[in-house]
Amino acid sequence: NENPMDKNGLGNHLPSRNQTIGDIPEIKTATGAPVTDNQDTMTAGKRGPVALEDIWFLEKMAHFDREVIPERRMHAKGSGAFGTFRVIHDITKYTKASIFSEIGKETKMLARFSTVAGERGAADAERDIRGFALKFYTDEGNWDMVGNNTPVFFFRDPLKFIDLNHAIKRDPRTNMRSPNSNWDFWSSLPEALLQITIIMGDRGIPSSYRHMHGFSSHAYSFINKENERVWVKFHFRSQQGILNLTDQEAKKVVGMDRESHQRDLYEAIEKKIYPKWKMYVQIMTQEQADSMKNNPFDLTKMWLKKDFPLMPVGEFELNENPANYFAEIEQAAFNPAHTVPGISFSPDRMLQGRLFSYGDAQRYRLGVNHHQIPVNMSKGVENPHSFHRDGKMRVDGNLGSELHYEPNSYGNWEDNPKENLPKEKGGDVYRYDFRKDDSDYFTQPGLLFRAMTKDQQQVLFDNTARNMGDSTLQIKHRHIYHCYKADPEYGKGVAKSLNISIDDVDLNLPPSDSKENLKKANNLHPEL
Ligand code: HEM
């Protein structure tokens, strides 16, 4: 009975941990009163009803009734650990961020990895993107790098993010995931093909979180001491190497262990086999950005390594399991808006949308004062001195009796003008159709397809066919057509695995990149 997870090389599972009892084993109420009996509720007579004055029962039950908090809307199932980042190469000419200020400098950090579509109890070994979220507790405040294990995303406008989640999560009627909705949506967006090709390929199910790379995916910006900006993408390369599961192996793993990623990460760290990732950056100057044919801030495209080589920066190691999962991982709030001087944003529409969404989601999920939860506090900065006051669950001194308006005559709440960002380009406000800016959907998926071995290509065809499941013929044709545009062999391979003759697929259509084109394609073959 071979376990596909054995290839991760961790050896035998650890026995479950013994609980440690504190110095004072006696149980107390939340306000410190002794609990005299934790076995029997207080009743009126031996067999009578329960008394309202059993305040221990009321407190225990009421607390339990509130134990769950909303899960993350996506990326709900995840695992995390603490670690250390160390600088190995000097990049101070690009950024003044203190985390990178000198070779050898170490910064404490937290990582959380996740699947995307499944709920908090979902199995780990599913075909899906993996989240790759890092929080660096720098001495200038927290820098969160909230990435994925893929360098691109399905689309380029944040308005579509809500539709993506509705399409891939549960159907409102059946309460089941629906391949038809999933592929209907994906195949209606030709720009999604690169991301689809990655997920349907052999990297679509990493064997563990330790065995995958991470990417910022978006371009961000670096600002140096002269207040000059360059554009930057971050890459984190697993030093454990890449290991994946096939669909067949994953089925077996899920049947044996729904927590395979959680177990692997936890046990590796307990066994002191600390996982490591090397950090690299790709740098693009404004001049290079201006001369790019494609929009450099388009999240559906990679910056090719041959044009923008990976420059090594440093390395991180995860070496400490959380002592308490809920306190330190479930309550962790990663947010791309959390930056430090020297690191900033880019005009990538998707990133701009994310800058609002995370804090907003966390104010709902964790509360307005979630920055006070210890795992989210900016440990490197002694006194963050933020202006905010009051709100639910304010648990520090709430800024004592300091005045709370600005301007004032007492010199409090001063601006920091020296950290002002350099100017960003802009233009007239309008809803610009990004497809008119760039409708090259197929070059990069074609490049990726041709970089695969024949075996990898076959795996891609078969995974795609299995994953499309009960999708309608219409949708299958649409996807085959997009694959064909990327590379005829890609289209033919997927068609064959789907048992569809490529001759039946209309290859003269425009891509389904507008409502009109989509209608045209659907009307041509209403019988499908
Ligand atoms: C989680 C929104 C795209 C990576 C989340 C959460 C929201 C969100 C609301 C839950 C936050 C929480 O409750 O703590 C969005 C929106 C997007 C977008 C609106 C596009 C417009 C992306 C992209 C990436 C990404 C492109 C990667 C490059 C993640 C990760 C998490 C996450 C890793 C989990 C963080 C954690 O471990 O706590 N996203 N997201 N998201 N997102 Fe996104």
UniProtKB/TrEMBL annotation:
Active-site residues annotated for this sequence: H75, N148
GO-annotated cellular components: cytoplasm
SUPFAM superfamilies registered for this protein in UniProt: Heme-dependent catalase-like (SSF56634)
Cofactors demanded by this protein: heme
Domain (Catalase core) ranges: 28-414
Gene3D superfamilies per record: Catalase core domain
Binding site for heme: Y358
Pfam families: Catalase (PF00199), Catalase-rel (PF06628)
InterPro entries found in the cross-reference section: Catalase (IPR018028), Catalase_3 (IPR040333), Catalase_AS (IPR024708), Catalase_clade1/3 (IPR024711), Catalase_core (IPR011614), Catalase_haem_BS (IPR002226), Catalase_immune_responsive (IPR010582), Catalase_sf (IPR020835)
GO biological process: hydrogen peroxide catabolic process; response to hydrogen peroxide
Main enzyme class: oxidoreductase
Reaction(s) the record says it catalyses: 2 H2O2 = O2 + 2 H2O
Record keywords: Heme, Hydrogen peroxide, Iron, Metal-binding, Oxidoreductase, Peroxidase
Segments crossing the lipid bilayer: none
Coiled coil start-end: none
Signal peptide positions on this chain: none
Family, per entry: Belongs to the catalase family.
Listed name of the protein: Catalase
